[in-house]
């Protein structure tokens, strides 16, 4: 499988990354998740050539990182392990995580992530969300210390806007950005993608399948009890409009003998300026299907058909 350079760093990643949020999550967040299936899904991803695995301490209060540790044991060499800092685990269930990008906190978080992941160095260490209370200079002091100690290789930002990225780059190199970006939420194409292209910052969009909505597996009768029950994309007229959109995509996918999921991921990974979308998966069969998005092209005329469908269907105002 091809590799794509992450910004100007010496890190090269597969055109799709594996997201492991759901692997750490509770039933209320992502429905039923089985650790053995999660580990098998990571193994399958590695076998099929995916080398980028994204996690975070907040995914299941450390559980996702622990699942990743079990899965990568003995297979770590060619992998790019990306985790995050800056969302502190809540003291008790039901509380929101606090944002904290203070130097001492990041250094302590890094130690904990290294331990949970069972590795000596984190390949990509990302600020999960901006922390307006902490000067970004202080945050980058922590990254500089951790780099010198050999505990992190590259630094990324997640959920930062262009001005916030620009402010950060005054204090150190930003190797990647991790924002939301999908066919349903393409707003990043207006500002973040051009910004990252211009400044040679790797672009790792999350949520490319819109929590599974863009896989074509849902219909008018589907009901939701997890995170999707609270997502406006899964409600009322918007949900019905999304189903029609996916139906339109399905017609195009059939022309290639591909599934909607594969068409959507192909479009996302080949969007100019995108380095590698992070796709969430819970089981090996999902990973297998997702990897089928790689290695073929959507024709110019079908790109135009997709543009037309997108014209009536994006949720970004
Ligand atoms: N930085 C941030 O703030 C942030 C925020 C969100 C996500 N992320 C990262 O991005 C990753 C991906 O985002 P995401 O998980 O929210 O959304 P996503 O990739 O758009 O959707 C993932 C969900 O789609 C379904 N799915 C995946 N492959 C499938 C297939 N082949 N067939 C059918 N269903 C399939 C699975 O759901 P079911 O099996 O449950 O139906 C899966 O959990 C996360 O895991 C995380 O690493 C980062």
What is the topological layout?
Layout: E1 4-5, E2 12-13, E3 17-19, H1 21-24, H2 27-30, H3 35-47, E4 52-54, H4 63-72, E5 80-85, E6 87-88, E7 98-99, H5 103-117, E8 122-127, H6 136-148, E9 152-158, H7 162-168, E10 176-178, H8 192-198, E11 202-203, H9 236-254, H10 260-269, E12 278-280, H11 284-291, H12 300-311
Parallel strand pairs: 3-4, 3-12, 4-5, 5-8, 8-9, 9-10, 10-11
Antiparallel strand pairs: 1-2, 6-7
Helix pairs in contact: 3-4, 3-11, 5-6, 9-10, 9-12
This protein binds NADP nicotinamide-adenine-dinucleotide phosphate (NAP).
User: What's the CATH class label?
Assistant: Alpha Beta
Mean pLDDT metric: 95
- What separation lies between the terminal Cα atoms? 36 Å
Provide the list of bound ligands, each named once.
NADP nicotinamide-adenine-dinucleotide phosphate
Q: What is the beta-strand fraction? A: 5-15%
Unreliable segments of 5+ consecutive residues? none
Q: Compute the number of strand runs.
A: 12
Main beta sheet: 8 strands, parallel
Q: Going by CATH, what is the homologous superfamily? A: NADP-dependent oxidoreductase domain
Strand order of the largest sheet: 11-10-9-8-5-4-3-12
Helix-strand category: alpha/beta
How would you sum up the global shape?
A: globular
What number of structural domains do the residues give?
Answer: 1
């Amino acid at each position: 499988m091809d590799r794509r350079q992450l910004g100007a760093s010496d890190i090269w990643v597969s055109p799709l990354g594996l997201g492991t949020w759901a692997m750490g999550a509770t039933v209320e967040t992502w429905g039923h998740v089985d650790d053995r299936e999660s580990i098998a899904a990571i193994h399958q991803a590695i076998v099929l050539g995916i080398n980028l695995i994204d996690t975070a301490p907040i995914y299941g209060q450390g559980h996702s990182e622990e699942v990743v540790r079990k899965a990568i044991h003995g297979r770590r060499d060619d992998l790019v392990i990306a985790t995050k800092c800056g969302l502190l685990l809540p003291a008790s269930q039901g509380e929101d995580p606090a944002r904290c990008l203070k130097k001492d906190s990041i250094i302590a978080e890094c130690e904990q992530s290294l331990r949970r992941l069972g590795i000596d160095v984190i390949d990509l260490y990302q600020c999960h969300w901006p922390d307006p209370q902490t000067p970004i200079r202080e945050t980058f002091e922590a990254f500089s210390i951790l780099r010198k100690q050999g505990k992190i290789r590259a630094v990324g930002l997640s959920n930062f806007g262009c001005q916030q990225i620009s402010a950060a780059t005054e204090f150190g190199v930003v190797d990647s950005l991790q924002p939301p970006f999908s066919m349903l939420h393409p707003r990043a194409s207006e500002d973040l993608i051009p910004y990252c292209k211009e400044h040679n910052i790797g672009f790792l969009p999350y949520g490319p399948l819109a929590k599974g909505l863009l896989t074509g597996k849902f219909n008018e009768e589907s009901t939701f009890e997890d995170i999707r029950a609270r997502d406006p994309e899964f409600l009322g007229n918007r949900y019905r409009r999304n189903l029609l959109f996916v139906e339109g995509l399905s017609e195009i996918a059939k022309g290639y003998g591909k599934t909607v999921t594969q068409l959507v991921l192909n479009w996302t990974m080949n969007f100019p300026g995108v380095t590698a979308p992070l796709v969430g998966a819970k089981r090996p069969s999902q990973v297998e299907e997702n990897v089928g998005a790689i290695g073929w092209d959507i024709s110019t005329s079908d790109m135009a058909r997709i543009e037309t469908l997108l014209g009536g269907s994006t949720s970004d105002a």
